[in-house]
Specification:
single chain; TIM Barrel; Chorismate Mutase Domain, subunit A; 8-stranded parallel β-barrel; 13 helices; 8 strands; 10% strand; binds phosphoenolpyruvate; binds manganese (II) ion
């Protein structure tokens, strides 16, 4: 899949790409107010949702086509480029008529390959950047698939946006960040610009700066942030929108670490530490291989005695004991839980395999 690097998009970005603006366009005045506050202060694109995907009917569903004229006016007045979400081919047609500079595909849409293909068909032959938000669930395949559909339609200014994933577990964030998804995408598609949307990750404005900084620490190429002239009166996502002032303060305070570039002492110490980590990883792998051999032997014994693979009480006990032990060693219980679940999944697979041989 060939995609252009951000620096070849022909837009000025400074040290990161900034896309900012309200969750939803609400009035011409609101759009102009936020555009004026953001102009010439580092943002490249003014964002505003026109067609809003709402969980329940009856909520504010966006101003639709009317908002395009407001964005167009904000662009001519301030020089900001304009961006909005497209979910249906008719949205794409309207955006292309108004010369919208960038479109993005929302998380709900990415989840549905039929919708993504319809958008890719509608965008065929265009040269505008298209950003794809990760799907609602933790599925990198769907995210990549959406990017591939767009690439197959000839689009080559593509980018990805991480906006977190919904979870049933109680958490601080509205959509917990799942950093391993963008990290995996960066590994598979190193040229693809990777943007973070801390607004939809956090759901609360107070949490946004920390997540934005975390994205910089993970070498993201930019941010998409919801900015509203008066967040408390916003018709959608009121709790997570920043005022232009707070947004600009946050951007100014961000640190931009480099992948390389420490001094000689740093490099020396890092290579010592990396050597230790490499050695520990290799010991961990050897131990895992040994553990799985024991598990296979248990599988054979269970098969001979017609004993079930799953031992619910034993499994319950293992999880409880490992979490307790982990906690004593300073390991968070969800981390230990995650590792044990992965080990258990492979153990079950091995035991079923042993049953068949
Ligand atoms: C949005 O950006 O306003 C939006 C609806 O986001 P998401 O698709 O990430 O929920
Ligand atoms: Mn929103």
């Amino acid at each position: 899949m060939s995609t252009e690097k951000l620096k070849d998009w022909g837009v000025s970005t400074g040290n990161m790409l900034l896309i900012a603006g309200p969750c939803s366009a609400e009035s011409e005045n609101q759009i102009l107010q936020v555009a004026r506050a953001l102009a010439d202060r580092g943002a490249t694109y003014l964002r505003a949702g026109l067609w809003k995907p709402r969980t329940r009917p009856g909520s504010f569903e966006g101003v639709g086509l009317r908002g395009l004229a407001w964005l167009d006016r904000a662009r001519s007045e301030t020089g900001l480029k304009i961006a909005t979400e497209v979910a249906e081919p008719s949205h794409v047609d309207a955006c292309l008529q108004f010369g919208v500079d960038l479109v993005w595909i929302g998380a709900r849409t990415t989840t549905n390959p039929f919708s993504v293909q319809a958008l890719a068909d509608a965008l065929k032959g265009c040269d505008i950047p298209v950003l794809v938000k990760n799907p609602m669930n933790q599925d990198v395949g769907l995210w990549i698939g959406a990017l591939e559909r767009l690439a197959n339609a000839g689009l080559n200014k593509l980018g990805a946006i991480h906006r977190g994933v919904s979870s049933t577990q109680e958490m601080r964030c509205r959509n917990a960040p799942a950093w391993k998804m963008p990290i995996e995408l960066m590994r598979k598609m190193p040229n693809l610009p990777m943007i973070c949307d801390p607004s939809h990750i956090c759901g609360k404005s107070a949490l946004i700066p920390a997540i934005a900084q975390e994205a910089m620490d993970l070498l993201f190429d930019g941010l998409m942030v919801e900015v509203h002239p008066d967040p408390t009166s916003a018709l959608s996502d009121a709790a997570q929108q920043l005022t232009p002032e707070i947004f600009l303060q946050m951007v100014a305070a961000l640190r931009h670490p480099h992948e390389k570039g420490g001094d000689a002492a740093f490099e020396k110490r890092m290579s010592q530490l990396r050597e230790k980590v490499d050695e520990m990883d290799s010991r961990l792998l050897e131990m895992l291989a040994q553990r799985m051999e024991i598990v296979s032997e248990m599988g054979t014994l269970k098969a001979q005695q017609n004993v079930s693979t799953l031992q619910p009480h034993r499994w319950q006990e293992i999880l409880r004991e490992r979490e307790e032990h982990g906690a004593k060693l300073g390991l968070p219980s969800d981390f230990v839980d995650h590792i044990m679940q992965t080990l258990h999944e492979e153990a079950i697979r091995r035991q079923e395999e042993a049953r068949l041989t």
